[in-house]
Design goal:
This protein is an all-alpha fold. It is 83% helix and 0% strand.
Length: 118
């Protein structure tokens, strides 16, 4: 395995770790939303976690096939960064949870697009 292949694999694993961390953050945000009385949003957040975990697992299983220069991978990375930024803000202030829900659904769809390449 070449140095560039190892670097790509490390970059892929870093994104897979971010996906797992995002799942944990969604659960935490869901708990905070529930405690604040936003039960519908809390339920929507926690219901998205299994879908995101599934995509993370499928990507992990096929990580050797991921092409990090593909538009699908790049789109997933961008969407993941966007949702994590929004989650961080909402963990502090519980501002607009519906935007986190919207962004998370985009991450799930982007991850599924990468998986569909295999």
């Amino acid at each position: 395995m070449s140095d560039s292949s190892i670097a790509e694999l490390i970059a892929i694993e870093r994104q897979l770790d971010k996906l797992a961390s995002t799942c944990n953050s969604l659960i935490m945000l869901s708990n905070l939303a529930s405690a604040a009385g936003n039960t519908a949003e809390a339920a929507a957040l926690v219901n998205m976690v299994p879908n995101l975990q599934l995509q993370q697992f499928l990507l992990f299983r096929e990580k050797q096939k991921i092409v990090i220069s593909s538009p699908e991978w790049k789109a997933m990375k961008t969407k993941l960064e966007k949702v994590n930024t929004k989650i961080e803000a909402d963990l502090k202030h519980l501002n607009d949870i519906s935007e986190v829900i919207n962004q998370t659904s985009k991450v799930i769809a982007a991850a599924a697009a990468v998986v569909a390449l295999f």
